[in-house]
Write a structure and sequence with these properties.
Layout: H1 50-64, H2 69-91, H3 98-130
Helix pairs in contact: 1-2, 1-3, 2-3
């Protein structure tokens, strides 16, 4: 060892001395550092942005699948509820995704309105095709009539 450098094969210089003290190492394996046992100390946990994200996901899926109106209504309501809970956490400064919560509320309301409008459209069409009570002005009904 000359001047802090180790002799490496083929005459190339080694890595030299460590610029700082090594952390605890395993016996027989110099240079492999073992860090802290449970992560980096002193960092607070990250924000819990789950409500805003869930609101946005439910709102987008509900709006995209509005043709399945029962699912759109349920997902729209969930998106609005999750968005309101997310906005409450933003006001308490617990999370940092207020925009996702707002977008989730808007998409959820859109999905809810689309689902309800489609439900009303389908129900009015069923009534008009069915003829209401079956005793319309023509006297015909959709009931099966036995052939004789």
């Amino acid at each position: 060892m000359q001047g802090g450098y180790t002799d490496a094969p083929h005459g190339a210089p080694g890595h030299g001395p460590a610029p700082y003290a090594l952390a605890q190492t395993y016996p027989g394996s110099p240079g492999y550092r073992v860090g802290p046992a449970h992560g980096w100390p002193g960092f607070p946990p990250g924000p819990r942005n789950a409500f805003g994200t869930a609101s946005l996901v439910c709102g987008i899926i509900g709006a995209a699948l509005f043709v399945l109106w029962p699912l759109a209504v349920v997902l729209g309501v969930l998106a609005i509820v999750f968005g309101i809970l997310g906005k409450a956490r933003v006001r308490r400064r617990e999370v940092n995704n207020g925009g996702q919560s707002t977008a989730g509320i808007i998409c959820g309301a859109f999905a809810l309105v689309l689902g309800v409008v489609l439900f009303l459209f389908v129900m009015t069409r069923v009534e008009s095709v069915d003829g209401g009570s079956g005793d319309g002005p023509s006297g015909y009904s959709a009931a099966a009539v036995p052939l004789t």
